[in-house]
Amino acid sequence: MTATIKVNGVEHRVEEGLSLLEALRRLGYYVPSLCYDDRLSPQGSCRLCVVEVNGRLTTSCTTKVQDGMEVRTDSEQVNQVRREVLRLLAMNYPRDAYVKYPFKEFHVALSKYGVEPQGTSRPDLIDNSHPYIVVDMNRCIKCFRCVKACDEVQGYHVWRAWGRGGRIMIRPDGPDLAHSSCVSCGLCVDVCPTGALEDRSVLTYGWPDTWVKTTCPYCGVGCELEVGVKDGRIVDVRPSRTSVVNRGNLCVKGRYAWDYVYSQDRVLRPLIKVNGEWREVSWDEAISFVASRLKEILAKYGPGSVGVLVGARITNEEEYLAGKFARVVLGTNNVDSCARVCHEPSAQGLEDMLGTGGATNTFEDIDLARTIMVVGSNTTENHPVIGNRIKMLAEQGRVKLIVVDPRRTEIAEYADYHMALRPGTDVVLFNAMANVIVSEGLIDEEFVSERVEGLEEFKEVVSNYTPEFAEKVTGVRADVIREAARLYATNKPSMILWGLGATEHVQGTEIIYQLIDLALITGNVGRPGSGLIPLRGKNNVQGTAIMGDHPKKLPGAVPLTQNIERFEKLWGVKLNPNPGLDGIEMVEAAMRGDLKALIVFGEDVVMSHPYREMTEKALSKLELLVLIDMFHNETSKYAHVFLPAASSFEKDGTFTNAERRVQRVRKVIEPLGESLPDWQIIIRLANAMGYGDYFRYSSPEDVWNEIRSAWPAVYGITYERLDKEGGLPYPTPRLDAPPVKVLHVGQFTIGKKARLRPVAYIPSPEQPTEEYPLTLITGRTLYHFNMGSMTRRTGNQVIEPEDFIEISEDDAKALGISDGDMVRVTSRWGSTLIRARVSRRVSKGIVFATVHHPEASINRVVSPAVDRISHIPEYKVTAVRVEKAS
Amino acid sequence: MRPEVESFYSFSKVVVSEEHCRGLACYVARSLNPKAWEMAVRQEPPTYCLGKCYVGPSSSRTSGVPHIEVRSSRAVVLRHIVKGPVSSLGQYLELGGMRGLEKALRMTQGEVIEEVKRSQLRGRGGAYFPTGLKWESAYRQRAPAKYVIVNGDEGDAGAYVDKFLMWWDPYLVLEGALIAAYAIGASKVYFYIRREYPEAVASVRRAVRELYEAGYAGPAASKGVPVEFEVHVGKGSYVVGEETAMINAIMGRRPEPMPRPPYPTERGLFGMPTVVNNVETLANVPWIVENGGDKYAEMGYNKSRGTKVLSLNSLFERPGLYEVEFGVPLKEVVYDMGGGLKGGRRLKGVIVGGPLASFIRPEELDVRLGVEELREIGASLGHGNVIAFSDDTSLLELLHEIVHFAAFESCGKCFPCRLGTARADEILEAALGRGYLMPEEADELKSIATVMRSASLCGHGQGTGDAILSFLAKGADEMVRG
């Protein structure tokens, strides 16, 4: 619906229902405002956006467009209000800030209306405590944007308004910002119209002269960033205001933790290890060394002796080339990605049962869900932009929330039902939920009869898992299981999102089957607001398998065995028909001496695989270990060659996020030193191996166009279209049609009907014993990402300098451990020292340790037990003993 | 309540043993007891109006009751308390109480609303919005819950009718609230009373208990309306009397006004349709339902129908509460009812509906009491408080007192009010020392006030702007020099 309005005598057609302020701005009229921001609810407090509507003064931010409105944006009455309010604001406002930063929203308005501030600053109003955010309250005009942004968008109450009238003070909820509950998302800085809250980086390096839109290099949410550049250097990162993914929001990692790019210890020249010492060499020397060693090993031991591991940080194009390199150049299917140690069960489970190994719905559907079940995900810390969105919906009563997690995480505190199960008993819990749905007749009969098979067998299996039985095994009260099951089954549409708490178990893939089963029997698939979304870990881990970084799958995530001919034709070579080894198997093969050479793209295998002692032994046996990375890590101790890779800010390409959305990665700055984008490194290696003709690409876009021909689901996605329309989820098979956002509508990818997969419970081998009485869960925190190789090289390290282990008050007391003590954690597999945090987030008998720092390296302790189907290690269950370190 | 929200209120943490009133009515009457006024000026934080304007300057220890008189053709609001306090539900019933409610319950909700619409009753809180339309709007909303808020935050200095209604006849107000709750289908009534009226708080609490026990209210009401009552007591804020600010206050948020639309009847307390009615408004309702809206509308003048209670300040010879019909000339109020000023003082002007209002000069007193009539001469009716002031108060001092109050009470949300009141206070403070405003100061004040009046978010800033402009227009001769 459009409305016709007259602005300053000129007629315009505008969208009805829009605020008048938005409408006027879209039409190009200048309407100043200091309290309005399109991410916040309008508050109508600064009164600068007043316009005349049919002769009456009104604030345009709180007025909706109506047909026939006559609007004046620049009458004398309007200008008088603006001038006078600005004059009053400027009376005590520091003049130097106005002169130095003329582009700030408030300063622009001042100069537009010819008002010059005359005030000065008091040094005691500046808070320099926070590593990223400088607070200068001399410049605070009490617009409340920061207060509202923190409250309405992020769901925190860091910024608080004290007092009233002219005595209002805006202060953080601690003695200073660094000692407040701030999660450093930077939204308050982004909304601040004056620079009272400002990024330290722009104060240090200056205001950017250009902004480049790209995609965040951290988690699978895939937020869009605006990266500010000055004199060829990144000086700031801000959220994209137009992104449908992050909607003008970011977390501390995407927003602030980018300085690793300039870290002093970044490797900027190729290295070869000679007599245990790294020696800088030229690219030519490094490449020809790797090529000749690979040729020797291939000649001596055959293609089964080499492997490629992809860390999922690189672009789709590079992942595609890495897989192609393994198959075409090395002749092996030994290629895998770090998805093996995080979400492979999710991709595998969804593909096995529904036919597509990806989220069934997009993040946009979160707003449409009436019930959300979050399983094994500390969402507000690990996928904060999505976590806070769910949290706010729950807080506002717009969604019912079920959280399944042994820990009382932040999101669990917002849940209607928090099922804090004993670690590793997920199968019993979900079977009990299914039991309730079946026994109480809550199955969606229509959906099931049309689209689901295997119900009888399923019913039989779940019939043994009564809520009372589940209560004994999981520790979750039977009535809570019942209530949650009823809610999920009846308050539809219901959506399930999960993290590694669901997958990193010996029955990880089967747990995903169970979640899909629950969705199928309640008709929660193939509908907006329903479905299943794995919250994938790394920026481009969704891309790995579909780009072919998988021992049994070719690009498009199609089975190797059935598609080999098609790819032989496309690539023009004979391909090895034997399925390869996955990441876990490659390390085992190295241990046995069967794998001799390994190329690793951006992963710290020593830190990320379980049972570190074994991994180190295995890697030390390799004849050639090539690391392609930005920094030395624990694995480089065993590497022979180190090739310096460019960061994602230094190259073009695409990432695929957790909702299957392909988004552009854009080159913001030139690669530092001699570092090269991974795609160029692969081409150089292919050339040196004599396969140059198969790797003739002049740009990532070239590679993408080959991917489009190899995989029909992305044929409709071109760089041109991504630049114009923004990210597009696959499948987008046609150039002239929109993407398919909700999968399995009317029909599953796998066919008309999906088959239920009942799962019987097999307890983890890691059961508590007298010697190892506690159960260890491992995971991440807000401030660090995975093995910390990036975040440890940023200000995040100042905020959170080391790993920690959460222990309950009861256990801590019994063991004589106080908060902050160093403790020794020991399992059957190893032992390490780590700092204790006595916490109410874990229950008695459970400890939780973070995984980010090589000093603690908790994976020394983690059990090597793996899932039967996809070989994911059980990072979430290890029996341990904790003692105060002497 | 979160501590930073608490910090909004003057008296969230502070306790003053004896509170001295710094309200405008006590200010203009300071010559009656200069010592008491000095105490008020020294008190920190200040207390703006204890509702004892008939004996001002007053303190929390001042006793005495006002003269109460009915001058309208029929007694409506003051019909009980004109004879003294109603001290129990039994006594209230004996006086004929609850007949309005009983009749309402025999009518449909629509019929009750229709009756109120016919009465042409307008909200006595100062905005004079038709009460029937407000109820109808809330009644028409489809929502899982609806609320009635009784606004007992009579903060306008000089007015004390609500105080005596709550204190002496709470049953009448509660009966009106029950009828409102029935009419719109509310499940809960919130009763917000300012902290400066402890007697009213005790009385309303007691009356609610009695209504619960007698089955007129409460979840198990047998002969009334099954609604819960919750009594909220203020902590020291003037702006909280604004209806959207009060909604925020009850929700535990900063009591700041919110832009409208949405109106509270669409999205109010906890996002639900909410009717906010002032105490005196509701005190009219039982009579209207019992006797019919037409009967009520027979009284009054022009667009202002029915009766209004006026509160006269202590500077009058006969201060007190007077129930009058709209249309009575102000002259009659000042000289006939009030009996002119005490001790032969010369009347310099009258502030009606203050403190954030224009003043009326003696030569303008022919004006008839009515919303539109007063508006025509640039004044307002507000709460019906009539504050007379005499020669010993200069206009500059008076305006400063008003603006100082406005700055102290500004919530600070909207920029024109937060910045404008503070700056105007600064200018007037400086002018006080010298005894007059310089022309450029007057110009700046005018500029600030014009913007406050036209662009402030709520009546606080708008009214302050009005007051400054009217003082500058009517009193420039006295106030500006050079």
Described by strand count, sense and barrel closure, the largest sheet of chain A is:
7 strands, mixed
Average pLDDT over all residues of chain B: 96
Shape field of chain A: globular
Shape, principal axes of CA atoms of chain B = globular
CATH homology-level superfamily of the largest domain in chain B: NADH-ubiquinone oxidoreductase 51kDa subunit
* Whole-number total of structural domains of chain B: 3
Instruction: Give the number of helices of chain A.
Output: 31
Radius of gyration of chain B: 21 Å
- CATH architecture grouping of the largest domain in chain A: 3-Layer(aba) Sandwich
Spatial strand sequence of the major β-sheet of chain A: 15-14-28-27-26-16-17
Helical content of chain B (DSSP H or I, runs of 4+):
40-55%
**Cα end-to-end separation of chain B:** 51 Å
CATH topology of the largest domain in chain A: Rossmann fold
Structure notes:
- The complex is a heterodimer of chains A (886) and B (482).
- With 886 residues, chain A is an alpha/beta fold.
- Chain A has five domains: 2-89, Ubiquitin-like (UB roll); 117-262, Alpha-Beta Plaits (2-Layer Sandwich), CATH 3.30.70.20; 271-342 and 540-726, 3-Layer(aba) Sandwich (Rossmann fold), CATH 3.40.50; 344-534, Dimethylsulfoxide Reductase, domain 2 (3-Layer(aba) Sandwich); 774-884, Barwin-like endoglucanases (Beta Barrel).
- Chain A contains 31 helices and 38 strands.
- A seven-stranded mixed β-sheet of chain A has the order 15-14-28-27-26-16-17, with helices on both faces. In chain A, strands 33-37-34-36-35-38 form a six-stranded mixed beta barrel.
- In chain A, β16, α10 (316-329) and β17 form a beta-alpha-beta unit.
- The N and C termini of chain A lie far apart (72 Å).
- The mean pLDDT of chain A is 97.
- With 482 residues, chain B is α/β, with parallel strands linked by helices.
- Chain B folds into three domains: 1-64, no CATH class; 67-298, Rossmann fold, CATH 3.40.50.11540; 301-390, Ubiquitin-like (UB roll), CATH 3.10.20.
- Helices cover 43% and strands 12% of the residues of chain B.
- In chain B, the strands form three sheets. Chain B has a six-stranded mixed β-sheet. A four-stranded parallel β-sheet of chain B has the order 4-3-2-5, with helices on both faces.
- In chain B, α5 crosses α12 (279-291).
- Chain A binds chain B through residues 34, 42-48, 50, 57, 59, 62, 77, 80-81, 84-85, 88-89, 91, 141-142, 144, 157, 160-168, 171, and chain B through 2, 4, 7-8, 237, 239, 254, 258-259, 261, 407-416, 418-423, 447-448, 450-451, 454-457.
